[in-house]
Amino acid sequence: MTENESFLQEIQEGLSEILKPFQKQLDQQQKMAEFVNLCIRHASQDNFIELDELLDSSRAGVVENNGSLDGCKEIFDRLRAYADEKVERYRIRFIEDLSARAEQVGLPLQIDFPRLSSLRGIEGEVDFGKRVTTIDRKTLKSIDPKRIVSALLREKRELYDRPFDAQAFVDSLQQTWSAILDKENSPPGTPVPIQRFYFEYVMSLQSKAFFQDMAKGKFRGYSVEQFAVDIWRYFESGTGGTSDGYLMQLRPGRNNSLWLIDSEGEKRQITGISFQKVAP
After folding, report:
1. N or C: which end of the chain has fewer CB within 10 A?
2. Longest dimension (CA), the chain
3. Taking the C-alpha atoms of 239, 242, 247 and 251 in order, what is their torsion angle to the nearest 10 degrees?
4. Whole-angstrom distance between the N-terminal and C-terminal Cα of the chain?
């Protein structure tokens, strides 16, 4: 590096350090301006649900407590009261709007307010007071029908829009069960605790590359919800037993259980799994 290049690099680094706090402040001001503009837009369209959620966020507090935006808090408080009243009155129309949104995208949806249910294994609950919707243990900080349906569709894609071969699935379950029995020298037909089984099955899905360096990016996730839905898809397929003539049995119970879906399509607490040879 020449003397001139070294000098210019030093100047650039020095100016960059001087600029950092100014740039940070500028970025913060830009974000606050965008937030206020978003509130203006939703107010102009009377999107009271969006307003209610925006004004309840931490971003609103940042804007209110900024001295350069004096007067925002008073306006925000008035807007909060307005949006809150509109949301409470909206309860009557909520079910109708949510049903219409689901129908538009072809999503089956049953509503027994505050509970929601779609395909097997997809359930939710709406808490109007807290402005929160829970879908399969996932929290959505919204009661906007559009966002709820979008979240339900994401859950459907994750649980149902995956390739599924019922015969290969039940065969793989039996292989995992047999491998556990072999490790423990257990007699044929012995039930395996479901939590232990689930862990071993998830590990059986991993690639050789994962076991070489255990990199997080190489881990193949398989949630309990996916496991439950795959068991239901297997039952629904009518495949029957495994390729070598074994039938799967799920044992209900409460301790150390997993919520799975049985052959009747009902969610139940399952504590054990086994396979029994079918008499010829």
Report:
1. C
2. 89
3. -90
4. 83
Tokens of 260: 């799975």
Residue 134 corresponds to which amino acid? T
CA 61 to chain centre: 27
Euclidean distance between CA atoms 108 and 45, whole angstroms: 30
Q: Is the pLDDT of residue 174 over 80?
A: yes
Inter-residue contact 241 to 249 (CB < 8 Å):
no
Single-letter code of the amino acid located at 157: R
Tally: H helices and E strands in the chain = 9, 9
pLDDT of residue 185 exceeding 70: yes
- Distances 18 to 11, 23, 142, 267 between C-alpha atoms, Å: 11, 9, 41, 60
Q: Is the peptide bond before 114 cis (omega within 30 degrees of 0)?
A: yes
Mean pLDDT of 104-111: 94
Give yes or no for residue 217 having a pLDDT over 80: no
Average pLDDT over residues 92-119: 92
User: Which pLDDT belongs to residue 216?
Assistant: 67
CA distance 117 to 256: 26
CB-based contacts of 220, cutoff 8 Å, min separation 6: 205, 206, 207, 210
Supply the pTM of this predicted model. 0.72
Residue 238 has what DSSP assignment?
A: T
CB distance 116 to 124 below 8 Å: yes
Task: Find, among 274, 41, 158, the residue nearest to 150 by Cα.
Answer: 158
